[in-house]
């Protein structure tokens, strides 16, 4: 498990915020777990998707820390599309600021999702 | 979770979220279900889906375990129940398990009895079934002691509702068990002294019916319920059933006395909830 320095973001957290802000730039600020896993995989050219446990633990931790907020999507929409409902996340202003600071401080460039368990 | 989630992923998500607050548990399970649904609807072959999903689950196990530990810690911290000291819990466990060494002796008796039956001269069906049943009785005692040890530790730290001391096993159950034991012993004594095989078998039949009735109910309750009081009831039932061979051998006196001590200990020391403050 990666130990963090106080006040810093883990590489996976930076990647999630990166994916979340990219979604917002594209016009849809909300994203679900699998979508962010896919974006991280594409961004880093990784062979594998981030593990379930790693991803959802990070999402929960970030939400607890105020970097993300989340809600369940409208169940009717999920039913209409014939799939389970999604938990939708959104980067908060605090998360956006933390991401900007991490970028400014040149967050580790050798990020690989598999490193964080 | 739906079958599309994959049996391993479903099984694992159920395991590591078990016992957590319903809101936390359901949220994680639903998120995993949704994630896997999206995953399997990618344009991959069925085998690739299964392997990929399972491997994603396996790689996340350490994080899942760590997340569960954090959630449990938060759950305890938010609990209105006061945390009991380790010393007080240990004392409660010891005073409610004084009969455990005697139960171990009865368990050994069951095993030695099984060996004796195997080594008996002659060949009949009893030499096959007998040792199996006796071994199962020994296993029942061992399992019961283990379950009781776990249940007592938790139950004694939990306050009884409405300020009353609640028993993990109801008085009615205890009374029913005692009645069955008295009738069985009486039938055994009558059967042996009168040389009546039918009465002797009636006594055993009663034991079997009682064991099945009590045991099945306790097992079903324990499996369905997340309440540790039900697990304690199952533990008590297993220990009592395990003493039946020693009770049946009443002419050997000592095993029967030991069995009665164990039954008395089990019934007299059912895990009690701490009186509410």
Structure in words:
The complex is a heterodimer of chains A (117) and B (277). Chain A is mainly alpha-helical. In chain A, helix 1 crosses helix 2 (33-44). Chain A has helices at 11-25, 33-44, 52-64, 75-81, 93-104, and strands at residues 30-31, 68-72, 87-91. Chain A is 50% helix and 10% strand. A three-stranded antiparallel sheet of chain A has the order 1-3-2. Chain B is an all-alpha fold and 277 residues long. Chain B has twelve helices and no strands. Chain B has helices at 7-17, 22-40, 46-59, 61-78, 86-95, 100-119, 126-155, 171-194, 197-224, 228-242, 244-248, 254-268. The longest helix of chain B is centred in the middle third of the chain and has 30 residues, at 126-155. Chain B starts with 6 loop residues before the first helix and ends in a 9-residue tail after the last helix. Chains A and B meet through helix 2 and helix 3 of A and helix 2, helix 3 and helix 4 of B.
Unreliable sequence segments of chain B: 273-277
Which overall shape of chain B is indicated by the principal axes computed on the Cα atoms? Answer: elongated
The poorly predicted ranges of chain A are 109-117
The overall strand count of chain A is: 3
Strand composition percent of chain B: under 5%
Strand order of the largest sheet of chain A: 1-3-2
SS element count, helices of chain B: 12
Radius of gyration of chain A: 14 Å
Note the main sheet of chain A: 3 strands, antiparallel
Rounded to the nearest angstrom, the distance between the terminal CA atoms of chain A is 5 Å
Average pLDDT reading of chain B: 76
Mean pLDDT of chain A: 85
The number of helical runs of chain A is 5
**Beta fraction of chain A:** 5-15%
Molecular shape of chain A: globular
Proportion in helices of chain A: 40-55%
Q: Which chains share the greatest interface?
A: A-B, 25 and 29 residues
From the N-terminal CA to the C-terminal CA of chain B, the straight-line distance is 41 Å
Order of helices and strands of chain B: HHHHHHHHHHHH
